[in-house]
Amino acid sequence: MKIHTPVFETRDGYTFLASHIQFEHTLAGVPDWLWFRVPSSLNPYLVGRSDPFVSALLILAMWLGEDIEIQGPVSPRLMYGLGDYQAAFRMWSPDIFKPIRIHAPKLEPAVVAPNKTGVASAFSGGVDSFYTLWTNLPQNQIYRNMAVKYILFAIGFDILLGDEARWQPALIDYTALAQRLGVEMLPIWTNIREFTDTVMGWQAWHWCFGSVLIGAAHAVANPLRRFYQPAGRTFLTDEPVGSLPQIDHFLSNEGLEIYHHGARVTRFEKIATIADWPEAQRNLRICWQNPQGLQNCGRCDKCLRTMISLDILDRLPQFQACFVAPLTHDAVRGGLRGHLEEFYIEDLLHEAITVGRDDLVDDLRYVMEARKSE
Hints:
This protein has two domains: about 1-260, no CATH class; about 285-370, no CATH class. The chain is built from 13 helices and eleven strands. It has helices at about 50-65, 75-90, 125-135, 165-180, 195-200, 205-220, 265-275, 280-285, 300-310, 315-320, 330-335, 340-355, 360-370; strands at about 1-5, 5-10, 15-20, 35-40, 70, 100-105, 120, 150-155, 185-190, 225-230, 255-260. Strands 1, 2, 3, 4, 5, 6, 7, 8, 9, 10 and 11 form an eleven-stranded mixed β-sheet that branches. A hairpin with a 2-residue loop joins strand 2 (about 5-10) and strand 3 (about 15-20). The relative contact order is 0.12.
């Protein structure tokens, strides 16, 4: 894989940071260019380096077993971290990920300037990102230089580029949210999934999402010193996935620290933290399906786990407008199946027992027994 020197192009009110990508394999349907784009008003934030591209494409290169040649400038610190980042994936899944070499003749440290003090957090509207945002708002973060000043909303990430019916209302609502909170919205579009989904299949996205999101942060890193990657697991979770506290920091460079935030608390504890926040009550988006704009389906496992948590906390009525369907016993017993990791159900069962919710205890125990026979 050859990652050519990035170029800038401005058209139709957007500025693109793009790199021509060449593969050793013949890959039908894969674009020639990987790009990130932002509104042209954010031009000064874009970084003309290869750090965003090698971060976003590393997992794909390992999947293909293709060495990487980076023609543009890239951070020595990032290059150093990529060795350990590769090693983690190789240890987890040696049959999937091949060892590769990375050749980068233009090693140039990222700029560390006195005015580069901004802190950004990834934001998707989910529980993890709302928790990270809430705990790091200036009024809640006692260490002032760690407080969030920007939220980064990536489009072409969990919401696909072509799904404008979903990302457009989300962008409008989250931009308004940022204005109310006194932080700046950083919307960024990318076509990375036209690479990963075409080659690896959409099912492999759980391996890629962490490094892709960090790549997007590197693309707009000119004003940033720190980037919060909201945790989807706790420190106790041993399930390999594309974003974990032991690997994300390897994708830092000299100018941008990557900080995996929130692994110290469970998902239930995160929900409890944001349950009384009106912004979360109005704007929570946790569903993969989102059948009606920002509303959540109320029937997938993510919706059900969130609704059960809110019900245990006696806060579900405040969030009811976020969900299309109500929480029912049949929905709980039928919806928490399949690939869902067992610890999620165990945590909910513990919390239901603690507050004496015998109805939910019965439903969750039914689910656990039913899953054993699947």
